[in-house]
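Revision sheet: structure tokens.
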Amino acid sequence: MLNSADDENTMADVTAVRGPVGALAPACLASPAERVLLDWLEAHIKLQSLLDHDGVAGWEHRSVYEFVAAHGRWFTHAVLPAQVRPLPERQCFANAAETEREHPHLAYTEGFAVAADNPVPTAHAWCTDPGGHVIDPTWSKLGGSAYLGIVLPSNLRPRAPHNWGVLEAPGSLYPLLRNGL
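Predicted:
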């Protein structure tokens, strides 16, 4: 948590954190959870480069990690509004898509997040309000400490019966890696 003595300096840092991942300097991160998430993402990108093969030659991005690093941005967690109902855990992709359908002013967002009670980053989906705040129906009780993701175009949503994440299902991920957004 940030203390009030740092508020003047922190405001500039928090603003900088909200930009594209590629533009971030490590000193700009607003929380330890964001640092953990960024380190995890960078480690995956480095590992991918060490394992590089010709299978993705000519693609815009070699992995989902590069894709999120190139197009993602940081989002700020907000308390779940009273009009948005909490939904079951472990169903974040379907939950976020359903919440967006019920509340059209919210935008379906996918990427990686760190839950407040677990320091391990994970693929996750949530909604984002027009101010860039996370509205997370899945982690409504436990909340998230860091969210890095992409507001996806409206034609990209999880599809029943599987409701896999757009950035996890090969049919939707591979075209994004090949061509970008």
